[in-house]
Amino acid sequence: MQKTVATTSMVPVIAVDEDKCVNCHMCIAVCPVKYCIDGSGEKVTINADLCIGCGSCVKACTQKARVVIDDAARFLDALGRGEKIVAVAAPAIASSFPGQYRRFMGWLKAQGVSAIFDVSFGAELTVKSYLDHIEKAAPPLVIAQPCPAIVAYIEVYRPELLAYLAPADSPMLHTIKMIQRYYPAYKHHKVLIVSPCAAKKREFTDTGAGDYNVTIRSFKAILESRKVDLSRQPEADFDNDPAERAVLFSTPGGLLRTAERDAPGIRARARKIEGPELVYPYLDTLPDALKRGANPLLVDCLNCDYGCNAGPGTMNQDASPDIMEYLVEQRAVEGRQRYAGKAMSDKTARRALKKVVARFWEPALYGRTYVDRSSNLRLMTPTDPQLGRIYSDMLKDDPRDHLNCAACGYKSCRGMAVAIFNELKKSRSLSMIPQPACTRKSSGPWPMWAR
Prior knowledge:
By secondary structure, the protein is an alpha/beta fold. It has helices at 26-30, 56-60, 72-80, 93-96, 101-110, 119-137, 148-157, 171-182, 200-207, 216-225, 254-262, 276-292, 321-340, 346-358, 384-393, 413-421; strands at 14-16, 37-38, 45-46, 66-68, 85-89, 116-118, 142-143, 190-195, 212-215, 270-274, 298-302.
């Protein structure tokens, strides 16, 4: 059911508003991969084939010059044409529409959306897929893949980890495939994704599943522009079975908390990690940990510090994590109550949920493959003499001049020199730096100095 990707190119998911960009390079400072941004001109530009879509620059840009690219305009046009559409909604809507997410769904249905499915139940199917893979294949390592920014990072910068990415779809894709397989009334409907994420658009492009990735941020703008008061909208509920605790997937550690319900003890063999300043350096260390046999079995990882609840497609980047997570936790309590019965028995809940999941899960239906995109990385590595000439142009003739203050955005003087060498950063006199007669494309592990 998954289409084959014929190219290593990635669709753009972050854009630069040149009218607002002041070329301050704050975006470079916060970018985990740096060299996807070209700072050599009057305005910065983005190389989509190197950008992992993490959204760090969107949050950091004080000029609001970074824009998440989604399908809001296409979706509204499709609605206007009367196109048949179903929606799948990320668990993060509970934290983005506090106390009103059901009214938001009521508004969506009033606009013509035929049905709305809860991705949280897709997360229950995801856990089943993960544990089935662990039981049958006995892999040494499984890296969770609900986060498309992490998938992109591994595909471009750490291809040696591709074999360890979970060979199963994300909760969103589990949900979409479930609809296509088990809800024949909606099999030929287009699919709207109510999303907290910029990078999710790539997942749908790569797999051919999903049609309109519209961020919660865009929906908030639509509601505001139309002066929609959600408190006056009718409530609507999801059109699929409820999740139990998998509503926690949008919260850091939510996958692990769900998995240990069915695999007690898995926490002792797992690593929970999130946030761009931690997760990507951690992934850089995993190959060595694997060689030493020191790696965990399961890595529950997310790009965003506070999980998908504060993704770049939400308005929650500066919200209280306690308030966000409280709203999601309340849904988890409701799910447990539905399945656990009056006695609130975990055993009863597991038994009841297992029967429901079994109706929508089958082997091979939710499989996922990945693409080695490391050929996108055409970073030239300067020789020591070439570095010396660049350092001289930077007025760093003495080792004591290498302050590594990170004010340039590259964390080190060497990092900036590499950017200059690849014409991604301005120099006082690029003509002083001869074009290398013999240079090599970056190969092997993504160098530590380039983070």
